[in-house]
Amino acid sequence: MLYVIKCRVVCDIIVGLGQIISCITSIGSISWALAAYQKALRLSLPNKAKLDCWALVFLFLWRVLVIGLRVLAFAVFASCTQLGLFVLCAIHWMLMLSWTLMQHTTFCSTKIREFGFNAVAAFICIFDFFNLIEGHTRMRYVIYYFIVYCENVAMAVVWYCHQSSVAGWYRLPVIIFVVAVFWVGILVQIIYYLIIHPNNKPPYASEKRIRVCVPLSELVDCKPDSPGRVAV
Fold it and tell me: By three-state DSSP, how is residue 103 classified?
């Protein structure tokens, strides 16, 4: 009997470690795919400066922190109410779909295909920001990350209150990670755009350099400068 109990404990530990490793590798794979996508996209555009190794590192860290905390918030919220998670994702998807449609992209030859493209882009935006048009992106990032941060905090708080009777050591660290570490990811993003981004590294064209201060008229302009091209 004792042998059976020990085997079950060992199996539970192995399964738990396997799940943790699976989650970490999955988030890492998604983050690396997004960073590699940015590099490949710039390689395909002759007028774009190429990304070096440091740019890839910062892109990877930025995505890992933002997506990782997003997935963590989803996971703890799903442990309380799976239906609530699906409802939240559906609302977020519809909001992002409306946003992508307002940008009037022209990637496809027909309106039906364009709508399908926007629907897929909106699905990606459930987890992370996906830029579709050229131009300054800081206002789009601010709006998107404000929505995502509020959702993440709300999901974590609901889970924390739901688990109020459980004396788990992980309850407070989860809240701290969701509330505070998110801003570490934003800090990495800011460092990337101000220092590591190829437009801000010599040799660069002065008109393409990323400026800290930009006129409001430029920030609110959401018209694509180059139709049919994903902004980088």
Answer: coil
